[in-house]
Amino acid sequence: MSPVSGPRPELAELLAAARVVSVPMRVRFRGILHREALLIPGPAGWGEFSPFPEYDDVEAAPWLAAALEAAGEGYPEPVRDSVPVNGTVPAVGVEQVEAVLARFGAVPAVKVKVAERGQTVAEDLARVAEVRRLLPDAGIRVDANGGWDVPTAVGALEALAEAGLEYAEQPVPDIAGLRAVRLELARRGIPVLVAADESVRKETDPLRVAREDAADLIVVKVAPLGGVRRALEIVAAAGLPAVVSSALDTSVGIRAGVALAASLPELPYACGLGTLSLMSGDVSGELMLPDGGALAVRDVPVSGELLERWAASPEVTQWWLDRLGRVYGQLAER
Ligand SMILES: O=C(O)CCC(=O)C1=CC=C[C@@H](O)[C@@H]1C(=O)O
Ligand SMILES: [Mg+2]
């Protein structure tokens, strides 16, 4: 296998060089039990292409642009040499919270998933209270992934605010709803900031949320936004504080997130880049796992042996190669 040649290599080169892995999760996260990723080697390093399976080819295109940036160009100059990282607690039962947190070590902040389908606000409150009990001084943010409607969000956040929240990520699905939640929280004097995630990364216009004053801050992820350079431009144009987060990537994708966090002029919040702790394996022997609540800015060597160990089945590999071919076609049209 030879590395692909430049920023926009030929499709045939990409298909020949790509490797596909499937890594089991330690805990179910957004319904996922195995994380699949296609990795591409290039002159600047490895790139990761791992849009979630349900994404169509148009939504997957920026993920490929990000992978090609990593492999072909590498990253801009960092302005810091390490980035603070938050722990991430999936929508697990209270009894599992301590074990999940233990995997992250000492972290300055924790993100807690809430509003999981089939669960109640009472379960969310209990999960957040348990995090607060275990880590009295940590920043806590919640992420509803758009799972509430406006009244439920306001009610839940009023109750959750007791634990002291840094912000609530995507409490409702749409931009108008985010704005409504933000206004209602302010009207009731509930001290919770609203962050937009899906309303940035899944919108055709990632700046709409900022223009419409619908959030206090934005969550930015390298792959869905089309690369580190594009994400930097979006943050600058949005003019809002930004939180860098992962897309549940292998160390290769986490490295890209670290590059973004390390290049932002301001980094007011810990980054959601500790998610390798939720996975049972990786493609690097030097995992991008937080140490002392931070990730160092460094390159990630990819191990041939680990690519073999986690190699996806021939069927899954073919599915990803077909997808790569189709999405490459989308990119060419952009
Ligand atoms: O931000 C974190 O702490 C971890 C990353 C994380 O929560 C996510 C990663 C990948 C997919 C998303 O559904 C999810 C998110 O909504 O932010
Ligand atoms: Mg989110």
Automatic annotation (TrEMBL):
HAMAP family in the cross-refs: MenC_1
InterPro entries: Enolase-like_C_sf, Enolase_C-like, Mandelate_racemase_C, OSB_synthase_MenC1
Catalytic activity: (1R,6R)-6-hydroxy-2-succinyl-cyclohexa-2,4-diene-1-carboxylate = 2-succinylbenzoate + H2O
Gene name per UniProt: menC
Active site: 113, 221
Domain Mandelate racemase/muconate lactonizing enzyme C-terminal: 90-188
Pfam families according to UniProt: Enolase_like_N, MR_MLE_C
Cofactor: a divalent metal cation
Pathway assignment: Quinol/quinone metabolism; menaquinone biosynthesis; Quinol/quinone metabolism; 1,4-dihydroxy-2-naphthoate biosynthesis; 1,4-dihydroxy-2-naphthoate from chorismate: step 4/7
Enzyme Commission number(s) of this protein: 4.2.1.113
Enzyme class: lyase
Stated family: Belongs to the mandelate racemase/muconate lactonizing enzyme family. MenC type 1 subfamily.
Protein name: o-succinylbenzoate synthase
Keyword set includes Lyase: yes
Residue sites binding Mg(2+) per the record: 143, 169, 197
PANTHER family named among the record's database cross-references: O-SUCCINYLBENZOATE SYNTHASE, O-SUCCINYLBENZOATE SYNTHASE-RELATED
Alphabetized UniProt keyword annotations: Lyase, Magnesium, Menaquinone biosynthesis, Metal-binding
GO biological process, one term: menaquinone biosynthetic process
Molecular function as annotated in GO: magnesium ion binding; O-succinylbenzoate synthase activity
Biological role stated in the UniProt entry: Converts 2-succinyl-6-hydroxy-2,4-cyclohexadiene-1-carboxylate (SHCHC) to 2-succinylbenzoate (OSB).
